[in-house]
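Journal club prep — side note

Before the paper discussion, L.F. wants everyone to see what a predicted structure for a comparable chain looks like in token form. Sequence:
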Amino acid sequence: MPKSAHMVLFLLLLLTLSGCLTVGKLAVTIIWTEKDINPLLHLDYFDISSSAATAEEVRQDYQTLIDQVKGEEYVQERASEGLIVLERKLEIVAGKINGHEKVTIKDLAFLSDKLKLISTENERRLVLDQDEEELVETNARVVQENENTVLIWPVSEKKLFYTIRLKDNPAAVDQNRSEMLRLVQAYLNPQQKPGSDHDLTKTP
């Protein structure tokens, strides 16, 4: 399934794409503290599903999701990339699987190398590929440049926020949503009703 490099990056932060895990929307928030040293990164994943072709692959995707949001190996891998995992959460809201992750960016090169957030003396810029990503909302100034959507914030802005939607949506995603939901609901608590959540944080 084709995915832009930008979306793949964020999926890799929470979801291992060795399978066919997908998200409907992704909200990204970067917050600088007063010291402006190590910003916080909040990632909210909405409508997690699978584009797998078989029931067995869907189950494998489910297991991959659970391993990523509760496993210590994931925390260690992120630490090696300069990210300190502070919080991970999986929940069901309105019949859809959502995820949340909060990390501290210890290696500031991550901002430019991975997030593609380029800083100058006066502004910060981030480029989206409008052929593959649809901008849903942001607190940035939005400029269209050729085939790209450019988000621009003044350096003085301490909170950068945007939500994107991947335009490619294979039919299998809708077909597999109910099975993924059943599996995750059973994992969280067989007696819980959709809408309750389960915090899978493994770090203080």
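L.F.'s comment for the group: The longest strand covers residues 83-93. Keep this in mind when we get to the figures.
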